[in-house]
Amino acid sequence: MPTRPPVARTPVARTLKVLDRALLRFRAAGETVALVPTMGALHDGHLTLVRQARRKADRVVVSIYVNPAQFAPTEDFSSYPRRLAADVAALAEAGVDLVWAPDTAVMYPDGFSTRIAPEGPALAGLEDAFRPHFFGGVATVVAKLFGQVRPDIAVFGQKDYQQLKVVTRLAADLDLRVKIIGVPTVREKDGLARSSRNAYLSAEERQRAPALYRVLADCAAKIKAGRPIRAVLESGRKVLAREGFVVDYLEARHAETLAPVRSLKDGPIRLLVAAKLGTTRLIDNLAV
């Protein structure tokens, strides 16, 4: 796609009528549309998704919506960072054509009573084992976003790997006619995956946090060298515990189906981890 200069001001749609009017202009010009769904509090990882979207489509729409259906009552919905003005400014600099920023009255109006209950990779015993509400909320809001924006392409980060597989399956199973693109995780220089939740880490916790990626890389190297997967993962969990993490899971799974694997012969392998450091829950993954 041709490189376009950043727009001086990126329009923000807050209602379906305004969104439809903007999309109609794109479609009338025969332009393709890429969607980058986000919950805001944007960092360079999100902007990497935007850059990829700009390479793949004529127009880029970024949605910003903190989806309450993804949060359990004990999670951080009320404190999740919200900074729409700063996010829109960053997206304008990145050349985004439209920001879709609905409120909850638009996304879940009175009487809303339809929810999607995904299976397959959504029931892999990873995030779903600890956040059983999560992927139903993701699938429902993503299906709504796809219906609202009707993108040709949707871009997601690989950091939320199980989510990427759930969304890919959702689009295929429901014939949503959108191509899902996964973009490799953006990391800090010390390996920590960039995340909006990194802001919750204390200075001391931030120093220890890169151990999560170091353990993943070490486990991947040992498994690739032929070491027994079960023993490698058990050792990795112990290392994380010594570093102060409370481990929810450190697992080796088939990279496409997320089914458990026992050896390299079981197919392409992805390592996935979730662990708490203090009050902050971090997730990451790495290919073997």
TrEMBL record:
InterPro entries: Cyt_trans-like, Pantoate_ligase, Pantoate_ligase_C, Rossmann-like_a/b/a_fold. Its EC number is 6.3.2.1. Beta-alanine binds at Q70. It comes from the Bacteria. (R)-pantoate binds at Q70, Q163. Coiled coil: none annotated. It catalyses: (R)-pantoate + beta-alanine + ATP = (R)-pantothenate + AMP + diphosphate + H(+). It is found in: Cytoplasm. GO terms for molecular function: ATP binding; pantoate-beta-alanine ligase activity. One of its GO terms (cellular component) is cytosol. It holds the Pfam family Pantoate_ligase. SUPFAM superfamilies: Nucleotidylyl transferase. The keyword rRNA processing does not apply. Pathway: Cofactor biosynthesis; (R)-pantothenate biosynthesis; (R)-pantothenate from (R)-pantoate and beta-alanine: step 1/1. ATP binds at residues 39-46, 157-160, 186, 194-197. Keywords: ATP-binding, Cytoplasm, Ligase, Nucleotide-binding, Pantothenate biosynthesis. The active site is at H46. Belongs to the pantothenate synthetase family. PANTHER family: CYTIDYLATE KINASE/PANTOATE-BETA-ALANINE LIGASE, PANTOATE--BETA-ALANINE LIGASE. The reaction proceeds by a bi uni uni bi ping pong mechanism. Homodimer. Catalyzes the condensation of pantoate with beta-alanine in an ATP-dependent reaction via a pantoyl-adenylate intermediate. This is Pantothenate synthetase.
